[in-house]
Design goal:
Strand content: 5-15%
Number of strands: 11
CATH architecture of the domain at 100-345: 3-Layer(aba) Sandwich
Oligomer: single chain
Structural class: alpha/beta
CATH superfamily of the domain at 100-345: Type I PLP-dependent aspartate aminotransferase-like (Major domain)
Shape: globular
Order of helices and strands: HHHHHEHHEHEHEHEEHEHHEEHEEH
CATH class of the domain at 100-345: Alpha Beta
Strand order of the largest sheet: 1-7-6-5-4-2-3
Helix content: 40-55%
Distance between the termini: 59 Å
């Protein structure tokens, strides 16, 4: 493809992307294809000769688009959002065009220095105290893994990197029973084993029981184990529970245990002054992760990882073969030494575009709108006799279930709500996911897509009532 042809097709694609964003709500939210259906449409062998772009794009629309679940749909209420915005998409286009690898300062001075500055902007926006430095990881899963590896190295005097983790089975880590599954995965990858991870029960507020945490740490220490890290969660995935960072921080400080805070989704809400209290006690943390790609209109992937002691991370991850040495070493930041990957995309550009395009107040207004919409929906659910609000809104996430009169058996209620969720998602008008609260099957509703308005939430609630009452006829 020469530049003239590229220019012609690029203009067409931008028009298609604008049309897509403008009309995405006319599409079914969740893909309705069956397993294997998309693969069956694809050629079994690669083409010997190049094909015209028109044919490739036509096949994209015909064969691939039906298999896309539309995360940018305003009626996407499943999981946590992975919202985007036009400024972010435009920045991503520039990133792809430049095609730089931001592994070293020398390989992209602008990439490194923009990342440093824009993450300090974000630090200020969410109210983290001075002393934290930021790096962009791909996901919160990677940030948590990095925190665990740093804690492992601190606890072993950086010996595990040299001799491996055999014989380090005394190391112990702690997290909420409702923490993200990436915590246990990271513990496994770090070579510490799932048995080293203590799942601390939650209280009625959905947060980790601090008394149980303290007892677990003290019991392990008394038995000769070495407590090394607590992973606290601000906004759990299931029902948006909030661990008490102030109390957990005090426990960690008293016992010399590192503290990593997973605020991947909820951390964005801290840009709003009235929600900043969710990070009370964060000054005790050794590291914090917030995902702008979840609720800050920055397209996936962009995970902001703030660390207290950058030198500790560099010591954990740095390996400097001759081919990576530069004359600036020691005078600049080389972000490849702050995490696992050597190659790094220019992710800071889209965060910079979004913050500058919306401004802090514009981003705050979007978060406030989403939180208000969740509150209005909760009030509507609470007013219906045959629906039960199981978890009141915590920011923009709530949990509910259908509970018609005469259906009191726990198993029957679970089965009914499972059928309700399946029918709603198969219908294509909205997309929801489930969790369990105190053992009961419930439906999650998370408001967070960039273009979601009151009319979308009202339409979702109307669909939920219509489908639910149709099931019980």
């Amino acid at each position: 493809m020469d530049i003239a042809e590229y220019r012609r097709h690029a203009h067409r694609l931008v028009d298609w992307m604008a049309d897509y964003l403008e009309t995405v709500e006319s599409r079914p939210v969740r893909s309705g294809v069956e397993p294997g259906e998309i693969e069956a449409r694809l050629a079994a062998a690669p083409p010997d000769e190049g094909e015209p772009f028109e044919r490739i794009f036509a096949d994209f629309e015909r064969d691939l688009l039906p298999g896309v679940t539309h995360w940018q749909h305003p009626s996407f209420y499943a999981y946590f959002p992975a919202n985007s915005s036009p400024p972010s998409v435009l920045a991503e286009m520039l990133t792809a065009t430049l095609g730089v690898n931001c592994m070293l300062w020398q390989t992209s001075p602008a990439g490194t220095e923009l990342e440093t500055r824009v993450l300090d902007w974000l630090r200020q926006m969410i109210g983290l105290p001075e002393g934290f430095s930021g790096v962009i990881q791909d996901t919160a899963s990677s940030a948590t893994l990095c925190a665990i590896l740093a804690a492992r190295e601190r606890a072993t005097g950086f010996a595990a990197n040299r001799r491996g983790v055999s014989g380090e089975d005394r190391l112990r880590l702690y997290t909420s029973a409702e923490a993200h599954s990436s915590v246990e995965k990271a513990v496994r990858i770090a070579g510490l084993g799932s048995e080293s991870l203590r799942a601390i029960p939650i209280g009625e507020d959905g947060g980790m029981c601090c008394g149980e945490l303290a007892a677990a740490i003290e019991g392990d220490a008394a038995a000769g184990a070495i407590p090394i890290l607590v992973v606290a969660t601000v906004g759990t995935t299931g029902a948006s529970g909030f661990d008490r960072l102030d109390r957990i921080g005090e426990i960690c400080r008293r016992h010399g245990v590192m503290l990593h805070v997973d605020a991947a989704w909820a951390g964005t809400a801290a840009i709003v002054p009235e929600h900043r209290g969710l990070l009370d006690g964060v000054e005790h943390a050794d590291s914090v992760v917030v995902n702008p790609h979840k609720w800050m209109m920055v397209n996936f992937d962009c995970s902001a990882h703030f660390v207290r002691d950058a030198a500790e991370y560099v010591r954990t991850f740095e390996i400097a073969p001759e081919y990576l040495r530069t004359t600036e070493h020691g005078r600049v930041i080389d972000y490849r030494d702050w995490g696992i990957a050597l190659g790094r995309r220019f992710r800071a550009l889209k965060l910079w575009f979004v913050i500058r395009s919306y401004g802090v107040e514009g981003l705050r207004a979007i978060v406030r709108r989403h939180v208000a919409l969740a509150g209005e929906l909760a009030a509507a659910i609470d007013a219906e006799e045959d629906f039960e609000l199981v978890v009141a809104p915590r920011l923009a996430l709530l949990c509910f279930r259908y509970r018609p009169s005469g259906v009191d058996d726990a198993a029957a209620l679970d089965e009914l709500n499972e059928r309700l969720l399946r029918a709603l998602n198969d219908g294509g008008r909205l997309y929801l996911t489930q969790t369990r609260v105190a053992g009961a099957y419930v439906i999650r509703f998370c408001v967070g897509q960039t273009t979601t308005e009151r009319r979308h939430v009202d339409a979702a609630w109307a669909a939920i009532r219509e489908v639910a009452r149709g099931l019980s006829r």
